[in-house]
Prior knowledge:
- The structure holds two protein chains of two kinds.
- By secondary structure, chain A is mainly alpha-helical.
- In chain B, helix 4 crosses helix 6, helix 7 runs antiparallel to helix 8 and helix 8 runs antiparallel to helix 10.
- Chain B is globular.
Amino acid sequence: xxxxxxxxxxxxxxxxxxxxxxxxxxxxxxxxxxxxxxxxxxxxxxxxxxxxxxxxxxxxxxxxxxxxxxxxxxxxxxxxxxxxxxxxxxxxxxxxxxxxxxxxxxxxxxxxxxxxxxxxxxxxxxxxxxxxxxxxxxxxxxxxxxxxxxxxxxxxxxxxxxxxxxxxxxxxxxxxxxxxxxxxxxxxxxxxxxxxxxxxxxxxxxxxxxxxxxxxxxxxxxxxxxxxxxxxxxx
Amino acid sequence: xxxxxxxxxxxxxxxxxxxxxxxxxxxxxxxxxxxxxxxxxxxxxxxxxxxxxxxxxxxxxxxxxxxxxxxxxxxxxxxxxxxxxxxxxxxxxxxxxxxxxxxxxxxxxxxxxxxxxxxxxxxxxxxxxxxxxxxxxxxxxxxxxxxxxxxxxxxxxxxxxxxxxxxxxxxxxxxxxxxxxxxxxxxxxxxxxxxxxxxxxxxxxxxxxxxxxxxxxxxxxxxxxxxxxxxxx
Lengths: 235, 233
């Protein structure tokens, strides 16, 4: 350790700097696409989980339990290596025509995170008094419309902080995409390390990227908690 | 679609999936997964206890660095922590470290940071009157913590600890990245050797992880109900 020569120029300029920057871009792209999809799928599963149709509810429950209780890495490997046998040919053709590593990572991250998001949304919805639903139904709204106009808008407001935490988890979990060759920031840090032997500098750079993302998101949640939730309480 | 799923590959390699080359070689497969999870869990229980207590001491010279450390680790992906361990540990210890130790160190550091939050919440959940009563009977601060606050707090923390253990079981799959032959690594080995059955292999290990994790998730829910009921009395 004492004989180690620090050389920060490796990661602050030149080719390796560009590698890291391209890695940051991929991390942000991967996270952004997966966050949007995970939120939509999570919302759908949460609504299905509270449905009055038993098979729908059971499906959502099984989905939740299965994907929450399996490692993300295994899910990534499943979609990357093993999904071709159970997907229709047309889907396989389309996936092969696109950037398949990226697509597999998006699918795995979306499904894994959606299971957690669905549970957060559900506990948000359950925290809304059931009289709200009864009032909406007796005012003539259908079940779905009551959800859409009365319950969900209130539940989403409560659910924002845990949801944002799930987004943060997703951004951190996107590092696992390196295992199937998605060139995100962790992958690039490792590349820089193996080309230059400057592991300390490369991993410091990548760590800082994750910390900046974490601090930014945590600050947003804090702002939301103090501003929006307090405003609501005052109103 | 077309191809039919053929689970014969699982039956042929079942023992290898479960224990690797053991007893003729090192333990691997599911056995190693459980070993990594249990050892890291025990270590990070104590790590989390120490960090959790240090993060609420009055002295800011201790508290601030500890809180900074906890938040830094919580802001990093586990994979990053494992990579740090992977090349910091040999540098700090001046000798090569077996990969399984690296992984245990990474998992322990990472999980300790999360456990410390559970410990902190557990301690803060005990009414302040308990501490004050302890102090006024003449106990020292550490005695109040050790004999009064922790025994009550720890019981409330049990369900969260079990949940953290479930996360640990899932997280051991990352040991694959540094070449430790736990269940996920064994699966990729068998996949590389047999070539034709990735779907069957990954469905199977997903199922194995699921059974293990779901059992503990259910245990945690059961404990939560039971402990909540006891508290009501």
